């Protein structure tokens, strides 16, 4: 389950072309330097727990909430009853921009009599006929996505269902549905995200997606028998996109943790938290061998170059060591030649390390965080794998800090996200495996200092 999501600012493309390969474009948005902490907006109470949901803007006041005819924020969330084993959908509204919320006296507004009906994502459908609100939610244990419509956000009518399909080894959660244009074409496809706990590609919780069509009533997947993964790492779950932006700026943020160990993660008393959020990611569809594939481009802060190496050959047994800032981005392109692959190690002064290794024989990137798992739950230690094309040079973009890494390959169509445990990175080490390699480029960038 994930937090409420609403609207986002615009992103700007950035990132130059490399001389010998194409670096994945990176969106850069202005970073807000000053943020203010506010009290909890929507509390649980004696009757209900408050689970995941979404927020919409009722522009014309059709819900009748707030002042007549005035825009109002409406939160649609899952009520988990404390008095009976039941989940249903409730609403609350805000007339001050989201600081103060008032729960609806008639809650819940949609009750199927189900124990596992949750995580509503609501958006406005504008087809050839009248527009209306569409709710996408799940029957978690039955591995079904359920669709509803409403004119006023208060009364809901069933539209259709989708599933089971794809990966069904765990409970379905946090669905999302949105249109994307296939790059360099006039085709528009709809993408259905479904998070899954457990049974994902890296073990535990994660997210799959389906590509197909939605006509305002029914979603039809093009290839439901094929499982497509949003992320190949252990720590990218319950991602939901922001509605209200142009389709070209469709943006997703996910929870950076895994239910296999989330409840056992160590907690710093000075800053109590478990897990983090991923970087915001712009989404698009790109055609890969006739198959529309989801592409993710990270939205990051402004960066300044810290160090750079170009066109460096490393013989068998040689390694390149570079100091790195505690948080930043690595852009790496390596021609493995006839070697078996190469390794990129993020290392700390205390001996902790996380290794990203490319296996040229298998066409797989591995991320090994066992060297940074001290003090973390037993299920945390492990090695993740992500298939990649063997096209040389192998180019990756790696965002990292002392909490996690987000690895983007194949122009953002392959992504792997992992928490990094006890690692405090101070050094990057690159070396070949079984032969000579050539570093086409290694660029190390750090977050630019905030402006005054």
From TrEMBL:
Quote any Pfam family the record assigns.
Glyco_hydro_32C
GO CC field:
cytoplasm
Gene Ontology terms describing biological process: sucrose catabolic process
| Chain ranges passing through the membrane | none
Q: Which CDD domains match?
A: GH32_Inu-like
**Does the keyword section mention NAD?**
no
Q: What is this protein called?
A: Glycosyl hydrolase family 32
